[in-house]
Amino acid sequence: MKLTRILAGSAAALIAATGLVACNDSAEEDAATGADTSFDGPIRIGTTDANLREWDVFQDLAEEEGIDVEIVTFADYNTPNDALAQDQLDVNKFQHLQFLSNYNVGAGQDLEAFSATEIYPLALFWQDHDSLDGIEGERVAIPNDATNQGRAINVLVQAGLVTLREEGLLDPSPADIDTEASEVEVTPVDAAQATLAYNEGTPAVINNSFLERAGIDPNSAIFQDDPSTEQAEQYINVWVTTPELADNEELQQLAELWKDPAVEEAVLESSGGTAVPVDLTDEELADIQQRLEERAAE
């Protein structure tokens, strides 16, 4: 029998129904004295995609290592950080560095990234087309949320379809686009609506998480951004915890289990072959996070 279990439902209902509590007293005392924090109960991991096969593989590996974990799944992207900040979780894994940095600045929190996992390229799709040929003059749907809009615009910049008034912007907005010099017109839409635009024949930049549910083959993209560029480093996915637990040995061990070849193979499969593993030190992640938070605070 597995030592893990998945809790489902909306985030708000989940917290109220399960009565999640803060870390045990001995753990808090260890944190206060600077000692390595231990867990008397299961390590509570928050995520938004517990249905993906990699989590099953990960849980099996954790069980083999004798680590008791509890996967807590959330229905939205904002609540897992709140739950972590309120000691209702021990760690979460669902976000990239930019999302974390924006959250910390907006909420006045100090959550820390401590292990890089993977990066998912953001891609442009166009129904019944396999190249950019003929796209000039088209409207292109892009996600309108603060986390993905700038990246989507830069996808079009890298594709040579959009020109910015100022080169090199890491997080441009539609107002930064030189419309007269651009080959296409950008139409921001709710991220979930980008697939609808695609199905209506409109070229669309679509988040990886919406592709499977919309039945879109990730390999049918006509263009995607380059995950090795400086522009992409803010979109590296990470494990996140509180400053008190950032050096915890058990959490570090769990993060290493995510790098196991069996987990990486499952991640690659569930992403349609698009996920790119990232290997950065915690110090490198901290430097990127600091730069992003400084920029978000401007």
TrEMBL record:
<comment type="similarity">
    <text>Belongs to the NlpA lipoprotein family.</text>
</comment>
<dbReference type="GO" id="GO:0016020">
    <property type="term" value="C:membrane"/>
</dbReference>
<keyword id="KW-0449">Lipoprotein</keyword>
<keyword id="KW-0564">Palmitate</keyword>
<keyword id="KW-0472">Membrane</keyword>
<feature type="signal peptide">
    <location>
        <begin position="1"/>
        <end position="22"/>
    </location>
</feature>
<protein>
    <submittedName>
        <fullName>D-methionine-binding lipoprotein</fullName>
    </submittedName>
</protein>
<keyword id="KW-0732">Signal</keyword>
<dbReference type="Pfam" id="PF03180">
    <property type="entry name" value="Lipoprotein_9"/>
</dbReference>
<dbReference type="InterPro" id="IPR004872">
    <property type="entry name" value="Lipoprotein_NlpA"/>
</dbReference>
